[in-house]
Amino acid sequence: MRPSENCGDPRVRTWKIMVLPSLGQPDVPLEDQWELFTTLCHILHEQKRFEELERMTFSALGSKEFMRDKERAREMEFMCLLACIYNDSSYFAYNIMRELVIKNPESNRCWNLLNLIISKADDFRHNRFLLRLTHKHPDLVALGLLNGHNCLVAGTYKYSLAEYTQVFKQDKSNPIIPLMLGLTFTHMACQKFSGKKHSLVVQALAFLNTYVEMRGECQESMYNLGRAHHQLNLLPQAVHYYKLALECQPAEETPDGPRLDLSREIAFNLALIYQWKSKCSQDVHSRSEIVS
């Protein structure tokens, strides 16, 4: 509250003269403020206080001093995005990431982050956004893949097949594209009322073998091939590829990602197959005893 101009107290006059100017000119330099802010963010992250980290970063967006510098403003925006991801605030993270994708449509890192946020989101706002963006950038491989994923999750396999096929024509060196084509044909073959199941299975296995040739024989590719045969109920082939996957060494930790070991998933799927075969053999044995 500002004191009255008619107040005769000399202490008030001193307060008006000495204190008020310091309100517009902080004594702490801007670089020290930024260092204090980033240090606090690191501490909150280390202590996993993600909700407070999100509030802190969003509050800092209101700082005119921080936002004057374009590079610092970009860093602030990215820190807000990371805070939202850590705090599972998909709603706000998507709003930030959408603007970054529009500004940087050629950046694979932006698309990977958007895919991460979409996978955790509870809504489907991204569907229309991606479709609108397709009209502006029809040749983006990452955009076509995401549209194909959305159609695959929604169960519209023919639309996802069209998206993946278009992307495969543009980029024939990416192993994930024939993998997704093979999985799409696999889902179509497993539908109850789908026609020409034999043709669908043949096409699925053809694309999956193309994926293995491009990816190489590793634990991941053998597991995916075994999992597809498992879904198609081709159990002897599934067991064969699962065993090959167990013989392969797991992928070691790299700068691009952590160590990936699928041994537990493979063992669990093998146990399901053996359990089902055991039940079938017991059923046959009990029926033979009844007949005899």
TrEMBL record:
SUPFAM superfamilies: TPR-like. The keyword Kinase does not apply. GO terms for biological process: transcription by RNA polymerase III. The keyword Metal-binding does not apply. One of its GO terms (cellular component) is transcription factor TFIIIC complex. InterPro entries: Tfc4/TFIIIC-102/Sfc4, TPR-like_helical_dom_sf, TPR_rpt. This is Uncharacterized protein. TPR repeats lie at residues 219-252. Keywords: TPR repeat.
